[in-house]
Design a protein that fits this description.
The complex is a heterodimer of chains A (305) and B (294).
Chain A: H1 2-19, H2 27-51, H3 59-75, H4 84-108, H5 111-130, E1 142-143, H6 152-174, H7 177-187, H8 189-194, H9 199-225, E2 227-228, H10 230-233, H11 237-249, H12 256-274, H13 279-293
Helix pairs in contact in A: 1-6, 2-6, 2-9, 2-11, 2-12, 3-4, 3-5, 3-9, 4-5, 4-9, 6-9, 7-9, 11-12, 11-13
Chain B: H1 3-34, H2 41-59, H3 67-89, H4 94-116, E1 131-134, E2 137-140, H5 141-163, H6 165-175, H7 177-182, H8 187-212, H9 219-234, H10 239-259, H11 262-279
Antiparallel strand pairs in B: 1-2
The chains are: A mainly alpha (305), B mainly alpha (294).
């Protein structure tokens, strides 16, 4: 089932721009680019919270650090625009941060405490970056050379590939022994440990992989905006969106976030068009309503594999 | 740094910290019952601050007198929130409750911005700038009032939990829900009462905030975070610990913003919070239970 969904997504995703007129500046293409970005973020969070049961509220820390890594690498002349090395470096930087932070946090904190700790992490990083002086550009951030911009379709294909890659990774993990271990850790740490699963290793691994995808999303957003600022990139929204998407679609499922990402993007665009003033309230209302009435997500798929 | 500066910083910090303390007591009572960290607490405080502000601006009501309206209203709001939102999901673990609190925070924050614009507001009364001089120290009147309110709140909640039947029921239920049910305590009623207390305290903290600080809708998230830091410092689930944690955080922030800058003071607060969560999650003021950290 998830494979079929992914194949359809890939096929439609590749063909669609050919059918759209003036695709270089198309609004639809832009909306889909956003949706794929959201989907990648959501799969990153899904892996940590949905499958491993560690509710991270610090995804914006990884998003922001990925973006700042991109800006620093590019401005130092090592990287460039849509340079694979820069992209990977951004992801690895976020993952490295996740490992360094994850080992002390995950070995000691559980549940709410971990959620709080990660929330604190995002705030600390924001303050540090704003106070960072020359290196991080302070509160005005870092500006990237925007000469390379050609069209939105480049971003579209890149985000599509990224979203498919993240979804496929999550799918492959859930079908593997590793996935079983992660779900075991989520369902009962004691039982998992009794069966010889190294709990910390799996938790940190999932946290780092989620951070890797989140960091690459930060890289993509940095390429899109050409300016990396702390309020934009360390905004808690980058944690809020993946959480809503996963809750909407179904936490701990492979296809749930796909449905959730499209639903959320569509809802955002419709409400921006028709109800511009109440648009920001919708996300909060949505989380409440879905959690209360559709606890398993709009697809009503079962928790687990 | 002279002794006078030192004392002045300490007093400012302590008075400032009591507001974190009131917020943290509310979180602590809710956490004790439902084992969730109510993320929207700060946003509730901001809502109360706005209520206080509008009562003052539109009807000229004294901010301290408005406590008589706001606190009961928030007690009721707490009951309504529990029975309307949290009751349904209270059996299905921590995750849905955490999410609902998160959603509520985002909803309220944006609702306030849309209704009353995101501009900062402040209550300016005749006594806002008034301060009492003691020897070489200056103590702001509004902050002293906030301190008094925090002390009353902490005392009131402690007395309620220790002396009244309803309070005892809440404590019993938070210690062991199954045994509490055996002696005839209704879980939802106890949860609802705890939630109402938490919201009532948010109302009080909102009044304290409105008189001391300028505030804006986005202030809530930071306030929640600060209250959680205070809670983590003082130890989850203890009323006096939460108040002490708030005061400690206020003092730390006061000193570090003098020595470094106010932005670094925030970072130092968060860093301390992470350290305490990692190395002494039961809080600084409670004895370590057999060194067991899990």
């Amino acid at each position: 089932m998830p494979l079929v969904v992914m194949a359809v997504l890939a096929l439609v995703g590749c063909i669609l721009p050919q059918l759209v007129a003036a695709k270089e500046s198309s609004y639809l293409i832009y909306v889909l680019f956003q949706a794929f970005l959201f989907l990648t973020l959501a799969q990153g969070w899904n892996l940590v919270a949905g499958y491993t049961g560690q509710i991270s509220l610090g995804q914006h820390a990884f998003f922001g650090s990925g973006a700042y890594a991109t800006a620093l690498v590019w401005n130092s002349g090592l990287g460039g625009y849509f340079d694979p090395l820069t992209m990977l470096l951004s992801g690895f930087f976020a993952a490295l941060l996740a490992v360094f932070i994850g080992i002390p946090l995950l070995s000691r904190l559980k549940g709410d405490y971990f959620a709080l700790g990660t929330l604190g992490l995002g705030e600390i990083l924001r303050v540090i970056v704003i106070q960072g002086g020359e290196i991080t550009g302070g509160s005005s951030g870092l500006i990237l050379p925007s000469g390379g911009y050609t069209s939105i379709t480049v971003y579209y294909y890149y985000s599509l590939a990224l979203a498919l890659c993240a979804t496929l990774t999550v799918y492959l993990i859930t079908r593997s022994k590793t996935g079983l271990a992660l779900v075991a850790v989520r369902d009962s740490e004691i039982a998992a440990a009794a069966n010889g699963i190294h709990i910390l290793k799996y938790k940190v691994g999932a946290f780092a992989l989620g951070a890797f995808f989140t960091g690459i999303c930060g890289n993509l957003q940095a390429y899109y905006l050409f300016q990396v600022t702390a309020p934009n990139f360390f905004s808690p929204n980058w944690t809020l969106y993946p959480v809503i998407i996963c809750v909407l679609g179904g936490v701990g499922t492979v296809t749930g976030p796909i449905a959730g990402a499209f639903a959320l993007s569509a809802l955002f665009e419709v409400s921006k068009e028709w109800l511009p003033t109440i648009h920001p309230m919708l996300s909060g209302l949505l989380i409440i309503v879905v959690t209360l009435f559709l606890p398993r997500g709009i697809l009503r798929t079962k928790m687990g594999r | 740094m002279t002794l006078a500066t030192l004392l002045q910083l300490l007093i400012n910090g302590v008075l400032f910290g009591t507001m974190y303390g009131i917020a943290a007591i509310g979180l602590s009572v809710i956490f004790g019952m439902m084992h969730i960290l109510f993320l929207a607490q700060g946003t509730m405080i901001v809502l109360a601050a706005y209520c206080c502000y509008w009562l003052f601006e539109l009807y000229g009501m004294n901010p301290y007198l408005s406590a008589l309206v706001i606190v009961p209203a928030f007690l009721l709001l707490g009951q309504a929130l529990y029975h309307g939102l949290f009751r349904r999901v209270s059996v299905s673990g921590v995750f849905p409750s955490l999410l609902i609190a998160f959603g509520l925070m985002s909803l309220l924050e944006n609702l306030i911005s849309v209704l009353w614009s995101p501009n900062p507001r402040a209550i300016v009364a005749d006594y806002s700038g008034y301060s009492i001089s003691l020897w070489v120290l200056h103590v702001s009147f509004t902050r002293l009032m906030a301190f008094g309110m925090a002390m009353l709140a902490a005392g009131g909640v402690t007395l309620f939990l220790k002396k009244t039947l309803l309070g005892k029921a809440v404590r019993a239920a938070s210690e062991n829900m199954e045994y509490a049910m055996l002696v005839g305590i209704t879980p939802h009623r106890a949860n609802g009462v705890a939630f109402a207390i938490g919201m009532g305290l948010a109302g009080l903290a909102g009044i304290a905030t409105a008189t001391v600080y300028p505030f804006d809708p986005n202030f809530g998230f930071i306030f929640s975070l600060k209250a959680m830091i205070a809670l983590a410092l003082g130890g989850m689930g203890s009323v006096m610990g939460a108040l002490a944690g708030g005061i400690l955080l206020g003092a730390i922030e006061s000193f570090s913003s003098y020595v470094f800058s106010s932005a670094w003071a925030d970072a130092i607060g968060y860093a301390l919070f992470l350290m305490v969560l990692m190395f002494k999650p039961e809080g600084l003021f409670s004895p370590s239970p057999n060194g067991n950290r899990k």
